[in-house]
Amino acid sequence: MVRKARRLAAKAGEPVVAMTKSHTTVSVERATLRLAGLSGADHEKVPWVNHLVDAVRAQVGLEHGVTTPVFDALLRDEAPDLLTLAQKAASGSVQFRLPGKDDRAAAKRAGRREVSRGIRKIDRQRAVRDELIARVGNPPKTPWIYLIVATGDIYEDIPQAQTAAREGADVIAVIRSTGQSLLDFVPEGATREGFAGTYATQENFRLMRAALDDVSDEVGRYVRLTNYASGLCMPEIAALAGMERLDMMLNDSMYGILFRDINPIRTFVDQRFSRQVHARAGIIINTGEDNYLTTADAVDAAHTVTVSQLLNEYFAKEAGLKPWQMGLGHAFEVNPDIPDSFRIELAHALLARELFPKAPLKWMPPTKHMTGDVFRGYLLDGFFNLAGVLTDQSILLVGMMTEAVVTPFLSDRDLALQNVRYVMNAAGSLSEDFNPPKNGFIQTRAKMVLGEAVDLLESIVYDRDEQGLPPLLTAIADGTFGLMKRPATAGKGLDGVVTRADDYDNPAITLLETGADR
Amino acid sequence: MMSSVKQKYERRMEPVVVGDPSAAGTSKMVRAYGDTTGDGMVQLSFTLPLPHDKRAEGAALQLAKKMGMEPAMLVHAKAMGSGFTFFVVYGAVSHVVDLRQVKVVEREFPLLSSKEVNTGIRDTLKRRLVVVGACIGTDAHTVGIDAILNIKGFAGEKGLEYYSEIKVVNLGAQVLVPELVARAQAEQADAVLVSQVVTQKDAHLHNVTQMSAAFREAYPAGRVPLLVIGGPRFEDDAAERLGVDRIFGRGTTPSEVASYLVHAVQTKGARKRPAKKG
Questions:
Q1: Of all helices (H) and strands (E), which one includes residue B193?
Q2: What is the CATH number of the domain that holds A177?
Q3: Looking at this predicted complex, what is its ipTM?
């Protein structure tokens, strides 16, 4: 059954991967320029990578890749360096062209040389992480305790994150400002204003990583930093995360499509590139299966989580991520008023553990059934923590009793960590004794969910339409996931998708796929 | 249970109620309830930005006293990091609540069954009622609007999509106001439902005010669709100020919204709409 499920996931995923290989996007091209060292923005905060990609697109199109015309222009001395070229391009004073055969080879060589600097920076950061872990060590116990910080102001986030680390957090996630996923550019610099979160920028990444390096030394364990490679700028954020040594990135194969109405082709193309970068950078991805359970009933939709995990696993593996980098997600969202709700939770959590034995599973706390009764919520979070240790989850997102009430107070975070510590201390090794009988309630329920997942995968794989789209895209258009219908011909960011020409070249993809660093 | 016990023994318990003597015997004055009527007991937790020591505990008690707790018992104090202390305080609050001065928005419409909703719409409009829903601005929390609109529904009740006489167009998250207005016009919406969860920097208020203004601008006077907003942080009586017809708060169920819509179109009367082309 498990093998069949994986085979079906591969069958659903393969045509999508083939499609991504024949397309590029504005964000993939901008990420490539970022790897080549182009950063910064004009006085109106429009990043130079946006200017340069837009200018190339307007003059010669992006179907050949942005680097060939860009480095050809540099070789023709249109500008002394990338930044100046972008500035001149922004004012319309650069002529781009598609070079002839000899000039093209030279441009490609130059492009590869510059882009490889960014790749080597990612390699160096990965080595630095390994050294730091060797020196200060990993957290002594699993699950790793994952805590969210989100003030909107990076300079407020920093002391909060350091305090959280001192109080036991192993992973700090800086939630992004609500609107960022739909911005088609990455904001610049240190930011002090955001809505329900802090903007993801290269400078914010750098500041927070440096602050956590300090606190890692102090607490004697490497404190990991998480952000979001999702939305319209997924590839660029991934590149910045690799260069600034972020350790985990939220990166789901279908989240943007279903929950943000981003065009499916844009999402899959961006996602493959971002995952190739994450693979190279030694970053652990976190997938977003919790979202299926907050929009649908957690019992009825349990199998959609499994299907999404299997698809996420397929796409991750295809992009070069190793099992230890696949933080597949799931969540504790069964209605606590139904009988046996905790046993059902255990069944779902155990199924994920058994399907993905080597993956650092990410276990996410109740949100949908947090009512505002903070006392009841605190108990529910305790049961969530218990389910986490019983089923050997790897990354535990700490539940807040103030969920759905207010942004957590300092004291709410402290109480939440006490809850986790109590459960880990009292029952941390209980998974040893937890072997539900084969034909008991829990195992039966797990088997049933897996069966439903296989059925759903089968219906996806055989979903056909006249246009010859990959069946998975047809299924997404039909509303198979989460009741949301997302056709491949609509959605945000569609105008940033470009079909590759035969001579498309992207040195970043070449370096990522071959493993070369020059 | 509680209320029947109270009714039965009300007369006997009345003298225990401590409050304004002029209100005695009318049961209009209440105090907080711990385990005895009239004891005024409450629990309170808070943090002070002070290291945990005797002075911090004294400061916590002083704050409790200023909040009307007298006597206050400091039952728990715990250092959080080096500069903060968390406190739990129990105590009697001297304040008395005068029920006559409590204002609430009573539901102005009867709750209808789904059948009554459908017949109500048919009888009034002679056609289906069109509802356009969205989360506007940067708000991506569709939980509220989905609970009301999706067939799946909320609290055991089916959402508006389930009603045969309601046509639902759910635009989802992060919809821009002009886009919402355009879709409402294109769909000839009778009602527009908007949900707002994110309240940072009063985003919910700004977004709603902007939305209602945009509708008033786009439609001739008196022809604006019903503007209905929902979210956990709106004040009950803010509808007029925000330029909308009705606000729904936490825990609202789809049938309440459906019943309101029927009530509203019945009182407003069916608005004339241009005949559909084709």
A1: strand B191-195
A2: 3.20.20.440
A3: 0.84
